[in-house]
Fold this sequence. Notes:
Layout (H helix, E strand, L loop, with lengths): L14 H14 L5 E2 L11 H12 L12 H15 L8 E4 L2 H12 L5 E6 L4 H8 L3 E6 L10 H7 L4 E7 L11 H11 L6 E5 L15 H4 L7 E6 L12 E4 L2 H12 L7 H12 L3 H22 L14 E5 L17 H12 L1 E2 L1 E2 L8 E5 L4 H16 L3
Parallel strand pairs: 1-10, 3-4, 3-5, 5-6, 6-7
Antiparallel strand pairs: 2-8, 7-8, 9-12, 11-12
Helix pairs in contact: 2-10, 3-10, 4-5, 4-9, 11-13, 12-13
Amino acid sequence: MNYISSRLAAVKPSASMAASQAAKSLRAKGVDVIDLGLGEPDFPTPSHIIEAAHAAAKGGQTLYTGAAGTPEVRAAIAGKFKRENGLDYTPDDIVVANGAKQIIFNALMATLETGDEAILPAPYFVSYPEMVKLLGGTPVIVECPESVGFRLTPELLEKAITPKTKWLFLNMPGNPSGATYSEADLRDLGQVLARHPQVLVLSDEIYEHILFGGRQFVSFAKACPDLRDRALIVNGVSKAYAMTGWRVGYAAGPAPLVKAMTTIQSQSVTSVCSIAQAATVAALNGPQDHVSQFCKAFEARRDLVVEGIRRINGLTLAPPEGAFYAYIGCGSLIGRKTPKGERLSDDAAVATYLLHEGRVASVPGAAYGLSPYFRISTATSEEILTDAVARINAAVAQVE
Length: 400
């Protein structure tokens, strides 16, 4: 008996989670595997945030909250947007959810009709196309090659827009490539969007605080104020504050969209954990020194991996401009043979080879819509990354 919804037929599980699970399975068998599949900081959540959560729990903040979030957390988010991004949002323009992924899911559920198109610049975060498909939309993949810095250009955007286009997704800095957009880049895209008033913009800015080389972050809504009533700015505390497990994401956008997303939330998960919301208030309103400290560490790790990969004959790596991933080119390995005589037919085969022979878990570029690459997370210690690069080097050296 088949009782699974037909909507799931075209939807794939998370590739990064699958890579991590494969690593865990090998570890359970006693194999020494370095898991670089999932992207999450290895730093502990700052102590003042944990203390705020403890105080909230002891103080009785253990009941349901409003579906959109507590007044305190939405005020803190509004303050963050004003202070860091130069954006004036009121608490009524803001909604909180169980991670940025749920924010995106709710936004799509609130807006997509069957057949609506969502433009996804590739490489993209693995969950974007799957969420679009699950909710009846059609992903429109626009390949943004390394030659254009893995960025969407105005020309590529114009060609991709049709009368069915409902959303454009932007992710900056990007997962998996680490690509960023300057204010001028965003304005150029905004000029194209101005000619197509049916297109909404989902700007995923979850990595905004992880930028390298002195780059300054500019929110899409700040760069293109004339499009603010069509833009949903997505963010959260997971990456910047080492709070992935707290599951708090948030968004600011047009009041009708925020209201619709709040309705969905009220009828699905009700609200976000009250204690996690209190912790988010402390994260956003409290000391910010940890944010810059984390970023410096991520940049040092980025530099270590870039230098290490450059020494490996057969791999390439454009230095990521932000986030904490390395999107490694493996085109010269395709078609070659492993020591066991197996042909590496694509980047998925390369990732499989690195897992079983190099004992390093990575995610193939096909999962991000642009091949031939594989992604590793650099959000772990320099010692582990040094070991991982050495293992990758040894495995690649055996390919004939």
